Amino acid sequence: MTSTASAGPDFFSSTATAITRAAAERYAGRTVLVTGGAGFIGSHLVRTLLDARASVRVLDDLSSGHRSNLDPRAAFLERSITSLDAALDEAVAGVERV
Questions:
Q1: Cα(27)–Cα(95) distance, integer angstroms
Q2: Of 6, 61, 70, 95, which residue is least crowded by CB atoms under 10 Å?
Q3: What is the 3-class SS of the chain, one letter each residue?
């Protein structure tokens, strides 16, 4: 069993490249909604999807995420996922994946 603790930078670079390649095959040209896209994990997912040529919308109320984490290539809607209103309808309109 290989430990990632002793893995060098090449391991992480090749893993990231493989993930981006797989995402490109699955998400290129699709519209994706990422909830929590201003958080640490969500912002990395947004970047990966954008690099894979997906159209990305971010829905986040910034309660724990940060505006500085947002990628300017993604559309941003500052709303809570718990808001059942027209803004949520707008966020999911035409989305193929959430």
A1: 12
A2: 6
A3: CCCHHHCCHHHHHHHHHHHHHHHHHHHCCCEEEEECCCCHHHHHHHHHHHHCCCEEEEECCCCCCCHHHCCCCCEEECCCCCCCCHHHHHHHCCCCEC
For strands 55-59 and 31-35, give the pairing. parallel
Mean pLDDT confidence for 75-87: 84
* Max Cα distance, the chain (Å): 50
CB 42 within 8 A of CB 35: yes
Alpha-carbon distance of 26 to 53, in angstroms, equals 10
- Model-wide pTM > 0.85: no
